[in-house]
Amino acid sequence: MTPLLTAMLGALLASAPEEAPEGRFSVVPFLLPAYQPETSFLLGGAASLVHQPPASRGGRESQVMLAAAASTRGQFTLLLQPDVNLLEDRLNLTATASAARFPDRFFGMGANTRAEDEEDFTPIYFELELSPKWRIAPRLYVGPTVRYQHARFTQVVEGGAVQRTRGAEGGTTLQLGLAALYDSRDNTLNPVTGVLARLNLRGAQGAWGSDYAFAVLRLDVRRYVPLPWGPRHVLAMQGLVELRDGEPPFYDTGRLGGMELGRGYLEGRYRERQHLGAQVEYRAPLFWRLGGVAFASAATVAHDLRNLHINDIKPAAGVGLRFAPMSDVPVNIRLDVAYGSEPSFYLNVGEAF
User: Fold this and answer.
1) Cα distance from N-terminal residue to C-terminal residue, the chain
2) Is residue 254 a part of any domain in this protein?
3) Distance CA 308, CA 314 (A)
4) Do the Cβ atoms of 241 and 218 come closer than 8 Å?
5) What is the pLDDT of residues 68-126, one digit of tens each?
6) What CATH number is associated with residue 218?
7) In a domain, 207, yes or no
8) How much is the pLDDT for 16?
9) Domain contains 3
10) pLDDT tens for each residue of 293-305
11) Phi, psi (5° rounding) for residue 312?
């Protein structure tokens, strides 16, 4: 989902208390109006609850993101996404709970679909993902992961491309697997240096109550390099490998584009079992609490790895502004403009990666 956000209505800032022995909690909420053709006018809000451990003790920050949006046509999305560190960083708990009824566009499968084949449909999703990971070595966490998803579709074109694609009837999947996390970042909210690597291996089987049988390998690696010509000048890099085996439904395949990797493309403009991408972003302070970024990305999708072709790579680039509502909490509100297949605007809390 990539709405064209018109402006930010306001930012309501919670005052930060004095540092206590258990650390400090801060809240960064905001409201924003938006407009996109599929939804008409949209009002959304988000809030980040941030915990910063005492500087004298060190440790990793924790964040819980809550976001919601509703439109004048009765569409909605609701997201709760914690990333919490417990037991003096011996346990990392990440989770996602979401529900959405939001319009989408389907162009077919593969890297060579045509814009004129666009077909509207409205999915309804319920999703829950949970991944507790224990530290087994310095900066390395490993643990189980479980992902439940239920999907159904409304307002589907009768006899159209969606109805002819695997997964058109919706259904339920339960994926079980293993997750690993390596994190050497200096800050989990807005890093300047370090590496973050996430590996997920999951599978779905009919015996587990899933309507589809397939396996997923997802590797997401990010590197942050401080640049020598000033503080807070950072080169951020990301690489993504997302591979599937079996026959997943079309709505659970790789989706190129969106608010993170592939800004400039509608999320899901290109879909397939295999999804590869990379991006780089230069981040620099401007003045006061404002910063600027410039970014570029390249990504592609394919049914099988042997079908990958250099001509199918989709490039994109853009620039953005960052605003830190609180001087002592490293969470930015970001506004990006990018061009891939068309100009796109993004307004959100936190960095793209």
Assistant:
1) 17
2) yes
3) 12
4) yes
5) 888 777 788 899 999 999 998 899 999 999 999 988 899 999 999 999 999 999 999 99
6) 2.40.160.50
7) yes
8) 38
9) no
10) 999 999 999 999 9
11) -90, 0
Domain carrying residue 326: 10-16+23-349
Distances (CA, A) of 64 to 29, 82, 95, 259, 350: 12, 4, 10, 19, 12
Render the burial of 131-167: b for 16+ CB within 10 Å, e for the rest. bbbebeeebebbbebbbbbbbebeebeeeebbeebeb
User: How many CB atoms are closer than 10 A to CB 275?
Assistant: 23
Count other Cβ atoms within 10 Å, centred on residue 169.
Answer: 11
H-run or E-run covering 14: none
Q: What is the pTM of this model?
A: 0.84
Q: What is the 3-state secondary structure (H, E, C) of 305-348?
A: HHHCCHHHCEEEEEEEEEECCCCCCCCCEEEEEEECCCEEEEEE
In-domain check, residue 5 = no
Query: Sign (positive/negative) of CA torsion 11, 17, 19, 25?
Result: negative
Residue 211 CB contacts under 8 Å (≥ 6 apart), including other chains = 171, 172, 173, 249
When pLDDT is averaged across residues 235-262 and rounded to a whole number, the result is 95
Would you state the pLDDT for residue 12? 33
The closest of 257, 80, 250 to 173, measured between CA atoms, is 250
Amino acid at 192: V
Q: What is the pLDDT of residues 202-237, one digit of tens each?
A: 999 999 989 999 999 999 999 999 999 988 999 999
Q: Are 146 and 176 in contact (CB under 8 A)?
A: yes
**For the chain, how many structural domains are there in total?**
1
| Residue with tokens 């829950």, as numbered in its chain | 128
Q: Between β-strands 91-101 and 119-137, what pairing exists: parallel, antiparallel or unpaired?
A: antiparallel
CB 215 within 8 A of CB 260: no
Q: pLDDT tens for residues 113-127?
A: 999 999 999 999 999
